[in-house]
Amino acid sequence: MNPIFITGIGTDVGKTIAAAVVTEALDADYWKPVQAGYAAGTDMLTVGSLVSNPQTTIHPEVYKLSTPASPHIAARNEGLTIDLATIQSAAINIENSIPNKPLVIEGAGGLLVPLNEHETVADMILALRAKVILVSRNYLGSINHSLMTANCCRTYGIPVLGWIFNDDYMQYEQEIVDWTGYPSLGAIHRLEEISSSAIQALALQMKPALMKAIHPTT
User: Fold this and answer.
1) Which of 143, 138, 105, 141 is closest to 124 using CA atoms?
2) Are strands 4-8 and 63-65 parallel, antiparallel or unpaired?
3) d(C-alpha 161, C-alpha 96), whole Å
4) Are the C-beta atoms of residues 176 and 166 closer than 8 Å to each other?
5) CB neighbour class for 197 (10 Å; exposed up to 12, middle 13-18, buried from 19)
6) Do 3 and 96 contact (CB within 8 A), yes or no?
7) Residue 171 — pLDDT band, cuts 50, 70, 90?
8) Catalytic pick from 32, 64, 207, 212?
9) Strand, helix or coil for residue 148
10) pLDDT in tens, 91-127
11) Is 64 among the residues known to form the active site?
12) What is the mean pLDDT of residues 120-142?
């Protein structure tokens, strides 16, 4: 089973909440290979606090960097270089430990965020043989950012399962679906409280679309 990689049209578009919903819906494991910035807590801890099914294991980061910046800059500040082969090796170990179980991987920022001087998040997706769920948030400019992200996926040959949409500023979802040809897997409207019960409810709503996207012929 190919990993499911959660990436977004930019930073702060709701990837972590979307990753928690997908993880909950699929009884999957969760992994964020690269965490850049953790003064307010890590995404791993956030997802662990929101996912309530007993089947999920939260796997530790390969690179946990203190600077809230692009991963290549955060790593440079700590005297490190992010090595894609090291991330690949960790992914193989995780996949071997959970045969026939979904693995949800959360990226850092968007597709062209640099990991080092030569490789980006898009290169990591390809190296991990992952299929992508794109996260878009409704804001002025998000149509452009969403279409550019979709075009980048096509340029790189990255397989896309569909979109998850966040927030309630106007409603661009169907236009983005029509322009890109990638289906909507669901929407996360503005939550009064981000809690495990809210994640459970969203997971229940999105599960049929997620299962159809992952297993289109069944």
Assistant:
1) 105
2) unpaired
3) 23
4) no
5) exposed
6) no
7) confident
8) 32
9) helix
10) 999 999 999 999 999 999 999 999 999 999 999 999 9
11) no
12) 97
